[in-house]
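Hey, I was hoping to borrow your eyes for a little while. I'm sending you its amino acid sequence along with the backbone structure tokens. Take your time with it, there's no hurry, and the full record follows here.
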Amino acid sequence: MQGETTTRNPEDDMRKQSQPNVDLPQGQGAYDRLLEDIRLGVLLPGARLREVELAARLGISRTPVREALRRLEADGLVEHLPRQGASLRRLGYAEVMELYEMRAVLEGTAARLAARAASDLELLELSEINTAMTASDLPAEVARLNRQFHTSLINAAKNRYLQGAIGAMARTLLILGQSTLFDPARSKSAAQEHDTLLRALHARDGHKAEEVMRAHIEAAHRIRLRQLREAGLMDGIEPSGGNDVAI
């Protein structure tokens, strides 16, 4: 017992004192699980997020759930409403427009930088991901491979500040729920757009790569606008019924 006392690290004690109620591994796990539920549309815009219910579903205590909700609030995904508590934010029409405009700018810049900075191995990886995406007819798999393609491209740009800005924006976009690539027509055209982008990257043509990426994001934006229109959100007014509409 005495030996255990002499091996304690004072820095560990200081960290525990500064974060007395946070179970970091479980808190991170709860955060990741909730992010995935948002991405998959399990949690829809406007959904109430009760600590007790979430803790029971995740099989953990309320403390890591509370920490995960705080992080989601800091990310701009969760809000606290009077007499209701925490709920998943709704994105209005104008905010969706602004997000996609910024996405075109940021990912267009990433494509331009990647044309200069990506290694041959990174370009090969991008080609292999897109080949797998083209071959798949499973919407969930296509969506996963598409995320992998975009993440690999952003990494290949080799700019940590750009990565941070895109990451923050992407977390907000998760509120939109299911990927536009669940539309079979969009899935096919997206892979073709990736092919055009890859040709520009292999040619080390940064201007063309940025142009193609911007067009690629704008095509996805048009699909979102169609979804907004079908959901009755084109005028920026939330429809009645709340959680039955996922934009």
Q: What stands out?
A: Residues 131 and 191 are 8 Å apart (CA to CA). The first helix runs from residue 2 to 6. The first strand starts at residue 78 and ends at 81.
